[in-house]
Design brief:
This protein is of the alpha+beta class. It has 3 domains: about 140 residues, Roll (Nuclear Transport Factor 2, Chain: A), CATH 3.10.450.50; about 150 residues, Penicillin-binding protein 2a (Domain 2); about 325 residues, Beta-lactamase (3-Layer(aba) Sandwich), CATH 3.40.710.10. Helix content is about 30%, strand content about 25%. The strands form 9 sheets. A 5-stranded antiparallel sheet has the order 1-2-3-4-5, with helices on one face. Strand 2 and strand 3 form a beta hairpin. Helix 4 packs across helix 5, helix 11 runs antiparallel to helix 20 and helix 13 packs across helix 16. The longest helix has 17 residues.
């Protein structure tokens, strides 16, 4: 009859050894050998064990073949117990507990036990009697474990109403099918197809020639209904070229929220390598944007089957899991407003953006980029001087220093600060110069009046006022974003330039929309884009939302903006529409429009190039319009804002 013992843990085995030695006639117990075996199996390296037959390198070679088709995952193996033979103190058996994470979700999902026979060898060391059944009880020589997967059902990215923003649509996979093409024609056909679809001929030719003889080398995936570069006749005219029908997860149009939502396609070698076994060749996965950032959530759990493949080629199933649908990603986007904004920006040649926020909730309704942004995320990640739209923050600081919208300020045509000359924009109305109410200076965007506040508005108070509007305040919107940067310290001309949104002040279209939303709501708004808070991946290291700017803070508190201050800012923004630079917004139907335009100089040209900005509030809607290479905010941004607000009425 055997004697059964269950160690407290593998790590405790060494601590038990001294006690067990005295109980076995001063001979070592099998505990250490069992613990070393379990540890080696966890690492798939049995170099620390000694065997009754063969050496560790031979056993490792056999073990490697047993698990070569199990993927990169490794089991956690512990000693469940040791059975010593009371009639033969030279023999014992170790019960080994295996826990595998076979679907790579970080938790064990396949568990079982096996038994390993141990024998005491010369010099009383315990040896392992290796056989495949130590890995799994039914394995014999010539068998191996095989893991196969099927992708989990991909969940949707949905809009604010729960409707999918992307879905399966018919496409054509266009490429060269090598089995249909003699080797001597591969280069010419590859180059011809590359020219047809707009790829680098040399790079695509190299890809075709480097692929296996049975490969289909994809060049382009094109919407089936698209009037794209690869026409049916054009593809058919190239030997070996095919257009294969398929389905892909696509947005309603090629440009719809592309920089934000991203794309889905076949997993690249790099993504497969970085997935720790979650992805396999041929899997559809997120390649960019939210689709990539939240891929593990959207992809769901793969179906997994573990089989024993024997020498005869037959398979016995040991473990099976069905694929699970991923979890939908809920955004705050309004698809109608997103499409409206993108349509309005369609003819803008330079980088541009429209961001709309609902002040009452802080939800981002649109994050639209124009084609001039060339796929870059101008709306959320752009970093630009805001020009006169930043006078909303300067005006708030002036209110806090004792001014009111009716207070008299001095607006000369020009002003020199520490040797640098500042002027109002060309065409500034003469009637709005001299001693004028702050409301008038704000409405007409008098630079010199705000520069004259440099002695009463410190850089620190300016930075604090901006923060109370949400500029420079980090927020967890669920993806990378730049929220602005306003230095807390600046002197001389740098401080003066800050007062009119130049110098070292930087914002994104998002952060200016946040400022408008804060003014509209009467307290600082913390924006959000992803509604669910659990499972949100941390931003990548070094990204704008992972590394705060030197002047940024992270807070969801409402800040110190008072209702009275916000009302005064709204009064002055209404004056911009009623008597200032964006009177074109007076005719927009619906609630009264409040606005502030801005023009920011950049570059070294003479005269300098300018960014165009318009910030507007209408009811429960705050909108920022940005054009990277515009004229004045009112002339370049004003018509875009008017079109958006009118279209938003539905």
């Amino acid at each position: 009859m055997g004697k059964n013992r269950t160690p407290v843990s593998v790590l405790a085995a060494a601590a038990l050894t001294l006690t067990l030695v005295s109980c076995s006639g001063d001979k070592p117990s099998p505990d250490d050998a069992a613990a070393a075996l379990a540890q080696g199996l966890s690492e798939m390296d049995l170099s620390a064990s000694v065997f009754t037959e063969g050496d560790a390198s031979e056993v490792n070679a056999e073990l490697e073949q047993l698990v070569v088709d199990m993927g990169p995952g490794r089991p956690e193996v512990t000693v469940a117990g040791i059975d010593e033979n009371e009639d033969d103190d030279e023999a014992a058996s170790a019960r080994l507990a295996y826990d595998w994470d076979v679907n790579n979700d970080s938790s064990p999902d396949w568990s079982y036990e096996t038994t390993a026979q141990l024998r005491r060898g010369e010099d009383d060391k315990w040896l392992v009697q290796w056989e495949p059944s130590v890995l799994f009880s039914s394995l014999v020589d010539g068998d191996r474990l095989v893991r196969t997967t099927t992708p989990g059902g991909r969940a949707d990215i949905v809009d604010r109403n729960g409707n999918p923003l992307m879905g399966l649509q018919p496409v054509l996979r266009i490429g060269i099918n090598k089995p249909d093409l003699p080797e001597e024609q591969q280069a010419s056909s590859a180059a011809a197809l590359a020219n047809l679809v707009g790829l680098d001929p040399a790079a695509y030719t190299a890809a075709v020639q480097g692929a296996g003889p049975e490969a289909f080398v994809e060049a382009l995936v094109q919407r089936a209904e698209a009037d794209g570069p690869a026409t049916e006749d054009g593809v058919a005219a190239i030997p070996g070229a095919l257009a294969l029908p398929a389905q892909r997860i696509l947005a309603p149009t090629r440009s719809f929220a592309r920089a934000l939502l991203g794309t889905v396609g076949e997993a690249t070698a790099e993504l497969i390598e970085d997935s720790d076994g979650r992805l396999s060749a041929g899997d559809q996965t997120g390649l960019s944007g939210l689709q990539k950032q939240y891929d593990a959530q959207l992809q769901g759990s793969p179906g997994v089957q573990i089989t024993v493949e024997n020498a005869a080629g037959t398979n016995d199933t040991l473990h099976q899991q069905d694929p699970q649908l991923g979890t939908a990603l809920h955004t705050t986007l309004d698809p109608r407003l997103q499409a409206l904004a993108e349509g309005i920006l369609e003819q803008e040649p330079s980088a541009s953006a429209i961001v709309a926020i609902q002040p009452s909730t802080g939800e981002i309704l649109t994050a639209a980029n124009g084609p001039g942004s060339e796929g870059q995320q101008t709306a959320l990640l752009g970093q630009y001087p805001p020009g006169s739209t930043f006078k909303t923050a300067t005006a708030l600081a002036m209110l806090r220093s004792g001014s009111t919208p009716a207070s008299t300020v001095d607006c000369p045509a020009d002003l020199t600060v520490d040797g640098r000359k500042f002027s109002n924009v060309p065409g500034y109305p003469a009637a709005a110069t001299g001693a004028v109410p702050l409301r008038t200076a704000f409405a007409n965007s008098c630079n010199t009046a705000f520069l004259n506040a440099r002695d009463t508005v410190s850089q620190q108070s300016l930075s604090a006022a901006a923060a109370d509007l949400g500029i420079g305040v980090e927020a967890s919107i669920g993806t990378d974003a730049f929220f602005g940067s306003v230095p807390a310290e600046a002197e001389g001309t740098q401080h003066a330039a800050s007062l009119i949104g130049q110098g070292q002040v930087l914002v994104s279209p998002l952060s200016m929309a946040v400022a408008g939303a804060s003014i509209g709501k009467g307290e600082r708004v913390s924006p959000t884009l992803i509604r669910q808070s659990t499972g949100t991946p941390a931003p990548a290291e070094g990204s704008p939302s992972a590394t705060a700017s030197p002047t940024a803070t992270e807070s969801t508190a409402p800040g110190n903006l008072s209702g009275e201050e916000a009302a005064s800012l709204r009064e002055m923004m209404r004056a911009v529409v009623a008597e200032g630079g964006v009177q074109m917004l007076l005719g927009v139907p619906g609630e009264p429009v409040l606005a502030k335009s801005g023009t920011a100089e950049f570059g070294s040209q003479d005269p300098p190039e300018t960014h165009a900005w318009v910030l507007a509030i209408q009811g429960d809607l705050a909108v920022a319009v940005f054009v990277e290479q515009g004229e004045r905010g009112s002339t370049s941004g004003g018509p875009l804002m008017k079109a958006f607000l009118e279209g938003a009425q539905g």
